Amino acid sequence: MEEKRPPFNVEIGEKESEGIYSNFVLIAHSPSEFILDFARILPGVKKAKVFARIVMTPQHAMLLKNALDENIKRYEDRFGKIKIVGKPETSVGFQPETK
Hints:
Helix content: 25-40%
Pfam families: DUF3467 (PF11950)
Shape: extended
Strand order of the largest sheet: 1-2-3
Structural class: alpha+beta
Number of helices: 2
Strand content: 15-25%
Protein name: DUF3467 domain-containing protein
Largest sheet: 3 strands, antiparallel
Organism: candidate division WOR-3 bacterium
Distance between the termini: 52 Å
């Protein structure tokens, strides 16, 4: 039987409620944590600026993945399949070796 948790309130400050736009994320990890650097890439600009860094445990990273999977499914059920179009102007980060 699943244990029910009591409801709790989540507060958000005025600054945080405005949100931060990100169209790029760099992900790194160690045995004990995942690091997500959210950045913005603008057309014609050769560098990106990180606007937020989120550090979480591997367990919370998996819970985030599961929540994203579920919410993407709900989104696509309502609005249709999300299409990935185009390629980024430049590759950033580690790239697979080409043979």
